């Protein structure tokens, strides 16, 4: 029986405290201390917590909840996020590359000299092409100036030289037309393949400007063994045919035998690029 008044008193205090909390939450921030005292004094008296002068002298202002959102946690690097791959670039302005380009520039003069019958100049340009071809390879290996562009420029220079000699000598009637078709047909197919491999191996984004930016390596062409032999035989054939008017020797039969050999090695070397797995290497891929 004695518990009922206590329970009733406890419930009353709980209700009063709830009302006090509600009023405190609704009190404007600009109210002064006397206004706060008058607002909460009735509730304190009902809960037997009547304010005293000492209590209100030690009154501490309420800390109003801030409307600003809580600070966001610091961004932590995701473990699954992989670092961006650094784009590969190389120095293409090397002595071997410049020598190779000079050999390409000399090809039009070589073709003109053959068509004009100036075989002395043509022979001199052939010697220059052969010397620079050896020097650029030696410098690249000796001073570690190999570049991916060099692996493309060097065979391209050889093909341009060979194309110039093949076309001009065939036009002069010094080279059989069927052999010229075989040599040129192989080179055209290899050139188309080189453009294709350049496109598929170029890192994204694949734009026109990036396609022709050869400081961005993509694919490396590796000549096969038979291709090297074929190139050497072609150079011997074209060189011998070019200087033959300057010699007092009859080279008709030796040149015919060499022409048949070059025709066979040209077809063989073209097929070697098709069936070889190491002829083209994509840069950055194992």
What does this structure look like?
This protein is an all-alpha fold. It has a domain at 95-282: Four Helix Bundle (Hemerythrin (Met), subunit A), CATH 1.20.120. It is built from ten helices and two strands. It has helices at residues 3-26, 33-46, 53-57, 95-115, 119-142, 148-171, 177-201, 208-211, 225-243, 252-275; strands spanning 219-221, 280-282. Strands 1-2 form a two-stranded antiparallel ribbon. Helix 4 (95-115) runs parallel beside helix 6, helix 7 runs parallel beside helix 10 and helix 9 (225-243) packs antiparallel against helix 10. The protein is rod-shaped and about 135 Å long. Residues 1-7 and 49-59 have low confidence and may be disordered.
List the helices and strands and how they pair.
Layout: H1 3-26, H2 33-46, H3 53-57, H4 95-115, H5 119-142, H6 148-171, H7 177-201, H8 208-211, E1 219-221, H9 225-243, H10 252-275, E2 280-282
Antiparallel strand pairs: 1-2
Helix pairs in contact: 1-2, 4-5, 4-6, 6-7, 6-9, 7-10, 9-10
Would you tell me the overall average pLDDT? 77
Beginning-to-end CA distance, first to last residue: 91 Å
Shape: rod-shaped
CATH topology of the domain at 95-282: Four Helix Bundle (Hemerythrin (Met), subunit A)
Helix content, binned percent: 55-70%
| Order of H and E elements | HHHHHHHHEHHE
Low-confidence stretches: 1-7, 49-59
Question: What's the count of strands?
Answer: 2
GO molecular function: cardiolipin synthase (CMP-forming)
InterPro entries: CDP-alcohol_PTase-I, CDP-OH_P_trans, CDP-OH_PTrfase_TM_dom, CDP_ALCOHOL_P_TRANSF_CS
Membrane topology: Multi-pass membrane protein
Subcellular location: Membrane
């Amino acid at each position: 029986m004695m518990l009922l008044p206590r329970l009733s008193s406890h419930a009353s205090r709980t209700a009063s405290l709830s009302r006090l909390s509600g009023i405190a939450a609704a009190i404007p921030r600009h109210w002064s201390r006397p206004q706060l005292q008058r607002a909460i004094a009735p509730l304190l008296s009902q809960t037997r917590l009547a304010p005293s002068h000492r209590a209100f002298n030690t009154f501490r202002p309420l800390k109003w909840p801030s409307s600003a959102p809580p600070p966001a946690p610091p961004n932590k690097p995701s473990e699954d996020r992989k670092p961006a791959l650094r784009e590969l670039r190389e120095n293409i302005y090397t002595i071997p590359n410049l020598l190779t380009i000079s050999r390409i520039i000399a090809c039009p003069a070589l073709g003109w000299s053959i068509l004009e019958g100036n075989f002395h100049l043509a022979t001199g340009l052939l010697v220059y092409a052969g010397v620079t071809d050896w020097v650029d390879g030696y410098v690249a290996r000796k001073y570690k100036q190999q570049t991916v562009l060099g692996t493309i420029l060097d065979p391209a220079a050889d093909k341009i030289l060979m194309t110039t000699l093949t076309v001009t000598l065939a036009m002069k009637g010094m080279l059989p037309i069927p052999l010229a078709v075989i040599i040129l047909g192989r080179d055209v197919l290899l050139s188309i393949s080189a453009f294709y491999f350049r496109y598929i191996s170029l890192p994204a984004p694949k734009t026109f400007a990036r396609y022709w930016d050869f400081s961005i390596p993509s694919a490396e062409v590796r000549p096969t063994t038979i291709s090297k032999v074929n190139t050497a035989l072609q150079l011997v054939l074209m060189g011998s045919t070019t200087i033959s008017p300057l010699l007092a020797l009859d080279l008709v039969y030796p040149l015919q035998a060499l022409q048949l050999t070059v025709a066979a090695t040209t077809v063989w070397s073209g097929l070697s690029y098709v069936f070889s797995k190491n002829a083209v290497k994509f840069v950055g891929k194992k």
